[in-house]
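Comment thread on ticket #2218

A.B. wrote:
> Attaching the input chain for the structure job we discussed in standup.
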Amino acid sequence: MENSLGEFVYFNKKKILVAILIIGLAIGGIIYYFFSDWQNDEETIEKNEEEVVISEKEESSVEEEKEKEDKTVTNCFFDIKGEVKKPGVYSINCDKRIVDAIKTSGGITNQGDTSVLNLSKKIEDGMVIVVYSKKEISAFLETLKKEEEKKEICENSNIQNDACITSNNSSNDKKSNSIVNINTASLEELMTLSGIGESKAKSIIEYRTKTPFKKKEDLLNVTGIGDSLYASIKENITV
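C.D. wrote:
> Ran it. Output below, let me know if you need it in another format.
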């Protein structure tokens, strides 16, 4: 038996060597295939990790841009009094309206009445908003007609209220027929202009003391004077 095996090996050693070589190559091929596949998996994982990092950076960049945009939003301060749940000084976006200011202060109380207020008016920096009570408005209703009394409560009040509805009727409002020089007019003369109360008149005087008005449009630089107010008085002022 041993001789037969020896003879077989002796006479077939070339074939055996070829067979061993083929088996070795096959094993080597299998090892290379699995190693190459594993390496590809590693590269794929690394690539995915890089993509995740890039995605996180992009999201962070977008958030930073949003924060920058939020910081550029202009806010206006306003003082709200009367029948609101949380009266006080607040700051909101200048594009907001009187109705938003009331919501910011917690809304009106059960006794509040906004019928004399222009809820759609834009917020202006430094404005004063007074929400009157039903009793206060009712007191005027007893002696005045419905439309007149709403204007009366605003004009006769000792409290500045920039949220009040103003009339366009020149016979009823306080608009002056004379031309007012905004560089030289006194406090009282400035207050004859429609929509200019004591607070805004003082702001005009304070501004012109530092920087005299060169043209009528410069009045828009005064705190509390917006486009709509300027449009209503521009024909009655000069420099």
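A.B. wrote:
> Thanks. Noting for the ticket: The longest strand covers residues 75-82.
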